[in-house]
Amino acid sequence: MAWNALDRSQTVTPADAPPLLSDAVRDKIRSFFQRYDTKRAALLPALHVAQSALGHVPYQAMVAIAEVLELHPSDVLDTLSFYTHFWTHPKGRKVVTVCRSLSCELLGSGEVLDEVRRQLGIDEHGTTPNGRYSLVTEECLAGCDHAPCLLINEKLHKRVKPEDVARILADEKNDRLEVPRSDLFDAPADSALDAGGKGSKESGVVAGRASAPGAAQEATGQ
């Protein structure tokens, strides 16, 4: 069996490409240095901040993070690819995560997932044409005693039945927490850059998945 070798020293973005991370985002990443003994230790916070600013972490942003942390870009890619929270391609404004753990599966998460697919018209890892929702599954959402569960950004919905799905998805506040959340990893307001290197008004905080290392874990039920 032959394996294809990956040349991690090969450039994946044009040398003259405009920056993706603004100075404000880079400064926010640097603000974590005082918390750790090494710059490398700030890699996870840096990924959180970058994804908050851009909605995902493309390769060009990985290179920028590597520059700030004085790492090789492959070090950033290795860490990013380990965690399901981080996206390398655009995702919806809201990420629906359906739990596929044993507890949820036994209590009907498969039927819930089928109904989410039907309501949104997308499959797992898909995104609706209007960019509102993306759909994924996760091994566990740490809500086994409230199975079956699904997560919309940072908000956990408990004991979900297939007949609840349409109502949940139609609720504009279905991702809003009713308890205070940390803004530690949020990007500075209007801090992302568009392809022309100018501030993008559309880039705001995009909440992440529950499996995020160090991300806010607050959740509230129905």
Extended strand count:
4
And the CATH topology of one domain? Glutaredoxin
Largest sheet: 4 strands, mixed
Name the helicity range. 25-40%
Mean pLDDT: 82
Class of one domain in CATH? Answer: Alpha Beta
Terminal residue distance = 51 Å
Strand order, sheet with most strands: 2-1-3-4
Assess the beta-strand content as a share of residues: 5-15%
Written as H for each helix and E for each strand, in order along the chain, the element string is HHHHEHHEEEH
Task: Characterise this structure.
By secondary structure, the chain is α+β, with helices and mostly antiparallel strands. The protein contains seven helices and four strands. The protein has helices spanning 23-30, 43-54, 59-69, 73-82, 102-106, 109-120, 165-170; strands at 94-99, 133-138, 150-152, 155-157. The protein has a four-stranded mixed β-sheet, covered by helices on one side. The radius of gyration is 18 Å and the shape is globular.
SSE blueprint and pairings:
Layout (H helix, E strand, L loop, with lengths): L22 H8 L12 H12 L4 H11 L3 H10 L11 E6 L2 H5 L2 H12 L12 E6 L11 E3 L2 E3 L7 H6 L52
Parallel strand pairs: 1-2
Antiparallel strand pairs: 1-3, 3-4
